[in-house]
């Protein structure tokens, strides 16, 4: 192929602006931003960063984007950085701010789709940290279906205080200790001031590290992307390598829909299970699959959980942090082990232009004698995955539980109903949360919240108050990846849509059974019918603005809360 033909192929979108005589204004603007005559022939790569100064998950991403741009330019392409939003779930302050968190995922997808489509970019690199930014970026890539690579901003380093390692959950749990008078004012302040030492995403196997690890397993980021901490030199090196990888994708026209397949989604979810990842992965992979036009259901996810054991002793339920993973070979070493055990599909294509199996040929081996972070199948922490899909008269269309085995597999108790998460903090302060209760937080669903708030604050406060193994919590909202304890979220249908969770009263008996995968409200059908006849659908909390639009568009949690389907 001659040079001109190659160039035409690589700039097949941007040439509309750079070459067609009918676009003089676009060409004038491109010269205006500094492009040369030679640049006008090159493919253009949009570099989407969720960087901003206001939180540690995103504060360094604009800097990483500059390294990505250098790698793009070094490979004879034009890299153009643009920004989109990123919301930090650690800073959303209960229901009010948290309402915007999950909707931000779809807003990120919409905004990347908008810029890349409108500006005719030939490929896209997303530089993202934090929970919603990653699935938002992947959904945009799937919609655009142009050569794409995701760069993860990287995990944070641990904080330290009085010889203890800390992270964001330490700060939340300190609140519970404070409410229970279990911590001095000085130590409370010490924990808050030292939990977060700088740039990077929350350090356990919480939602950000879950999504980064599984997206790498799915093949949409370079090997080790999820394992380099934000401040590790390897992260900069990864950014500089993006240009060469993107060139291969353009030359071979490898697009996300060739990478996202039923098998690669299974690889992603296999890593979620093996590493003990966040329940939010359920929501996001349902959404990613729907966006890519691939069938994936809650029952499919349960089937993966049934066959993949929990192997990693990572926080929130375990001991170690994501920063500890690099020393044992990172996610590639875990994938290699699972591939050798027949649990990973090796023939899926990845953004290296190679298959998973080809990438793993270069990966290190896990040394089970030298480390105690990831265990072999024979010593699995739990024989099946920790994510369990529960059904029953409280959740006819499903609920998502995180059961690592440490919290037991069955809980029966009496309902304590809260209409929003703030009530839990008040109830804890008043000593009204008692052992044996099943706390029900409702009207927190996708439409009712709106935005399906995370319950990290209540669950952490419960843990901090020493009630973690004495109460359970169910909700039509969702959980942070940092949540642990006996919790069931994503209950569908949600209360706002008349789901049975709307009919629960204080004192009702509830059974959560992770073995039979049942969630049962012990109230007769007749009584429930009577309660339903008294129930009226609440007015939407918002009718205008972003949240008003979200309430109108969002699908149920069991369908991934996507917003672009009729
Ligand atoms: Fe951003 Fe945890 S709040 S990664």
From TrEMBL:
Species in which this protein is naturally found: Fibrisoma limi BUZ 3
Keyword Iron-sulfur belongs to the record: yes
Name of this chain's protein: Dihydroxy-acid dehydratase
Role: Functions in the biosynthesis of branched-chain amino acids. Catalyzes the dehydration of (2R,3R)-2,3-dihydroxy-3-methylpentanoate (2,3-dihydroxy-3-methylvalerate) into 2-oxo-3-methylpentanoate (2-oxo-3-methylvalerate) and of (2R)-2,3-dihydroxy-3-methylbutanoate (2,3-dihydroxyisovalerate) into 2-oxo-3-methylbutanoate (2-oxoisovalerate), the penultimate precursor to L-isoleucine and L-valine, respectively.
Family assignment from sequence similarity: Belongs to the IlvD/Edd family.
Keywords annotated in UniProt: 2Fe-2S, Amino-acid biosynthesis, Branched-chain amino acid biosynthesis, Iron, Iron-sulfur, Lyase, Magnesium, Metal-binding
GO molecular function terms listed in the Swiss-Prot or TrEMBL record: 2 iron, 2 sulfur cluster binding; dihydroxy-acid dehydratase activity; magnesium ion binding
EC number: 4.2.1.9
BP term (GO), one: isoleucine biosynthetic process
Pathway(s) the chain acts in: Amino-acid biosynthesis; L-isoleucine biosynthesis; L-isoleucine from 2-oxobutanoate: step 3/4; Amino-acid biosynthesis; L-valine biosynthesis; L-valine from pyruvate: step 3/4
NCBIfam families named in the record: ilvD, PRK00911.1
Catalyzed chemical reaction(s): (2R)-2,3-dihydroxy-3-methylbutanoate = 3-methyl-2-oxobutanoate + H2O; (2R,3R)-2,3-dihydroxy-3-methylpentanoate = (S)-3-methyl-2-oxopentanoate + H2O
PANTHER family xref list: DIHYDROXY-ACID DEHYDRATASE DAD (PTHR21000), DIHYDROXY-ACID DEHYDRATASE, MITOCHONDRIAL (PTHR21000:SF5)
Sequence positions bearing N6-carboxylysine: 132
Cofactor(s) listed in the protein's UniProt record: [2Fe-2S] cluster; Mg(2+)
Domain Dihydroxy-acid/6-phosphogluconate dehydratase C-terminal: 372-561
Co-factor note (free text): Binds 1 [2Fe-2S] cluster per subunit. This cluster acts as a Lewis acid cofactor.
Gene name in the database record: ilvD
List of residues binding Mg(2+): 89, 131-132, 454
Pfam families: ILV_EDD_C, ILVD_EDD_N
Domain Dihydroxy-acid/6-phosphogluconate dehydratase N-terminal stretches: 42-359
InterPro entries for this protein: DHAD_IlvD/Edd, Dihydro-acid_dehy_C, DihydroxyA_deHydtase, DiOHA_6PGluconate_deHydtase_CS, ILV_EDD_C, ILV_EDD_N, IlvD/EDD_N
Record-listed [2Fe-2S] cluster binding positions: 57
Active site location: 480
Quaternary structure note: Homodimer.
């Amino acid at each position: 192929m001659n040079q001109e033909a190659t160039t035409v192929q690589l700039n097949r979108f941007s040439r509309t602006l750079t070459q067609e005589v009918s676009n003089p204004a676009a060409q004038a603007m491109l010269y205006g931003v500094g492009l040369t005559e030679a640049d006008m022939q090159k493919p253009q790569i949009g570099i989407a960063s969720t960087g901003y100064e206001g939180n540690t998950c995103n504060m360094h991403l604009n800097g990483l984007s500059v390294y990505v741009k250098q790698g793009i330019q070094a490979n004879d392409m034009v890299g153009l950085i643009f920004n989109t939003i990123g919301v930090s779930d650690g800073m959303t302050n209960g229901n009010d701010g948290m309402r915007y968190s999950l909707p931000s995922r779809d807003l990120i997808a919409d905004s990347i789709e908008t810029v890349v489509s409108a500006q005719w970019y030939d490929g896209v690199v997303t530089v993202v940290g934090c929970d919603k930014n990653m699935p938002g970026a992947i959904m945009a890539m799937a919609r655009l279906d142009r050569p794409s690579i995701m760069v993860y901003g990287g995990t944070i380093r641990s904080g330290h205080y009085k010889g203890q390692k800390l992270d964001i959950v330490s700060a939340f749990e300190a609140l519970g200790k404070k409410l229970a008078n279990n911590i001095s004012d000085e130590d409370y302040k010490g924990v808050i001031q030292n939990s977060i030492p700088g740039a990077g995403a929350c350090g356990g196997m919480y939602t950000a590290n879950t999504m980064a690890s599984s997206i790498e397993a799915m093949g949409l980021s370079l090997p080790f992307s999820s394992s380099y901490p934000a401040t590790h030199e390897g992260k900069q090196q990864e950014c500089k390598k993006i240009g060469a990888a993107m060139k291969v994708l353009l030359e071979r026209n490898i697009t996300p829909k060739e990478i996202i397949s039923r098998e690669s989604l299974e690889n992603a979810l296999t890593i979620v299970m093996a590493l003990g990842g966040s329940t939010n992965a359920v929501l996001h992979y349902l959404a990613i699959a729907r966006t890519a036009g691939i069938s994936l259901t809650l029952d499919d996810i349960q089937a993966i959980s049934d066959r993949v054991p929990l192997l990693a002793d990572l926080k929130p339920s375990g001991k170690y942090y994501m920063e500890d993973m690099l020393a044992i070979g990172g996610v590639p070493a875990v994938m290699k082990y699972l591939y050798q055990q027949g649990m990973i599909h090796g023939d899926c294509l990845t953004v290296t232009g190679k298959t998973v199996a080809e990438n793993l040929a270069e990966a290190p081996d896990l040394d089970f004698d030298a480390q105690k972070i990831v265990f072999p199948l024979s010593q699995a922490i739990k024989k099946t995955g920790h994510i369990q899909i529960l059904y029953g008269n409280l959740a006819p269309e499903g609920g998502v539980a995180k059961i690592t085995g440490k919290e037991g597999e069955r809980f029966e108790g009496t309902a304590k109903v809260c209409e929003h998460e703030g009530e839990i903090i008040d109830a804890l302060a008043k000593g009204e949360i008692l052992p044996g209760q099943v706390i029900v937080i409702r009207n927190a669903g996708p439409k009712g919240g709106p935005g399906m708030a995370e319950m990290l604050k209540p669950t952490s406060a419960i843990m901090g108050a020493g009630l973690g193994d004495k109460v359970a919590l169910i909700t039509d909202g969702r959980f942070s990846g940092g949540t642990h304890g006996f919790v069931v979220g994503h209950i569908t249908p949600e209360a706002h849509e008349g789901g049975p969770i709307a009919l629960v009263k204080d004192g009702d008996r509830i059974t959560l059974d992770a073995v039979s995968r049942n969630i049962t409200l012990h109230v007769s059908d007749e009584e429930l019918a009577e309660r339903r006849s008294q129930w009226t659908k609440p007015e939407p909390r918002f009718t205008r603005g972003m949240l008003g639009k979200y309430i109108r568009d969002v699908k149920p949690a069991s369908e991934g809360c996507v917003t672009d389907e009729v």
